[in-house]
Design a protein that fits this description.
CATH architecture of the largest domain: Orthogonal Bundle
Structural class: mainly alpha
CATH superfamily of the largest domain: MetI-like
Number of domains: 2
CATH class of the largest domain: Mainly Alpha
Number of helices: 23
Largest sheet: none
Helix content: over 70%
Strand content: under 5%
CATH topology of the largest domain: MetI-like fold
Order of helices and strands: HHHHHHHHHHHHHHHHHHHHHHH
Radius of gyration: 37 Å
Length: about 525
Amino acid sequence: MSTVEQPSDTTATAQAARTAHDELMQSADDFAREREQQIPAFVRTHPEYYKKQFKKIGNNAGFSWTFNLWAGLLGPIWFCARSLWNWGLSFLILETFAIVQIVRGLFGDLAADAWARIAKIEGTLELRRQQLAAAIENNTDKIDVYRRTVDGLENSIGGIRLEAQQLESTGMTLALSGLAALLVMKLIQALLANMLLEKRFSDWLSDPSIARGMTPKHIGLAVGFVTMILLATVTHYSFPGVLPWLIEFPTQRVIRLTSIQWVEDFFAFAVTHGEVFFDIITRGIRFVLDGLELLLVQTPWMVIAAFIILLTWLSAGTRAAIFSGAFLSYMGFLGFWEKAMTTLALLGTAAVLSIIIGIPLGMFCARRERFYSFIRPIMDFMQTMPAFVFMIPVIAFFGTGKPAAVVTTMIFGGTPVVRLTVLGLRGVPEHVREAAISFGASKWYLLTKVDLPLAAPSIRAGINQTIMLSLAMVVVASLIGAKGLGEDVLEALQYANVGQGILAGFAILFCAMILDRIVQGERK
């Protein structure tokens, strides 16, 4: 019985396999036909040509050698009109360089700078010849000096004239090298065009929001942009000085002066009408700063050292605690202890205030995309604007001294804790939150028992980055009256005291390492 039924089962299995294979092939054919039907809507021009080329590219797993004549002739205009802007701009830069060489070689005055130098030297030479003639007439002792000067200038003119002649003779070589580079670029663009367009077509099939090329708007934009870049660049490099406004922006001094006056008027108004507000902020900073200075500077050094070592041991282990003790000993034996504690008080004030403001702000922004989109450019401005620039309004509002240094440090170092708090809370798996909600978790329980514990690594990283960036402002803050280790570094810069600057710099480094180990300790 089994020997009779076995062929029947094998036949059924083979039939099922053939049916599955036929269905798979039919599905593939249907997909290929549907894909081919979408090509005219994407390319808009020469659909039959692109159907053939796309099919050839799709059937080959490697690089398919295809040649697009129009892409080679039009170059960057073709790529930009097809919305391949990244490639179009790259090819535009290379083609512009090649065209500049061609135009300079054929029509440009390659020796213009050399002839200008000769004209300048000839003016000086004429003056020296007159001085030599007067010296000979009066028979003074400067005859030999003037004669050597005249001979030297004449030799310089001869050398520069020879250089100018050599430059003028290289014009055809420069033009031919530019032409060769341009032809190579045209060939590369013609070979890559179909493959790049086919890849964009595949992306467009899965994402119809991707722009299709060869619309009148894209063609006009591509032609206008490429033509403007080519004309401006070729004119500037091949015929320098023909259009002066290509070098100097056509502006007027009154615009700058008026803008400066507007800014000064704004800050004068803010300082006058916001005096009470800025006084409140200054007193709050003073309260925290005085408390930390009393704790770190006035407390016996043994107590502070033992506390820091113990805290490092609890956070990062025995090895880190030993290193912390060594770093603290370095500061003490070299006489940096008081200034290091002052630096930590200043840093601690800025970091504490940044953390107190930053973490709640990050928690608020994590579930409010619109508000986060509003403050994100502000944080970008705070991080990218040079510290010396935003020190100017800080001094205008808070004067010089430690409160101004704290505010400057907060502006520079306060944004990472906000960003990483938002990142950590948004990275909490949604299914975990849904599970907690399904078991009846309240919003407070969800925040304190689910969101914050899971986001804690990211938040700790934000706190660490805020502390490190705040410590990086130690030297800059010393410029506006902050005391501490930054003062020693600044003094070393002013008087070229290499030893003092290096030793104080190491003390700042050790403060950073201690704080880093405490905040980002290995123990969980």
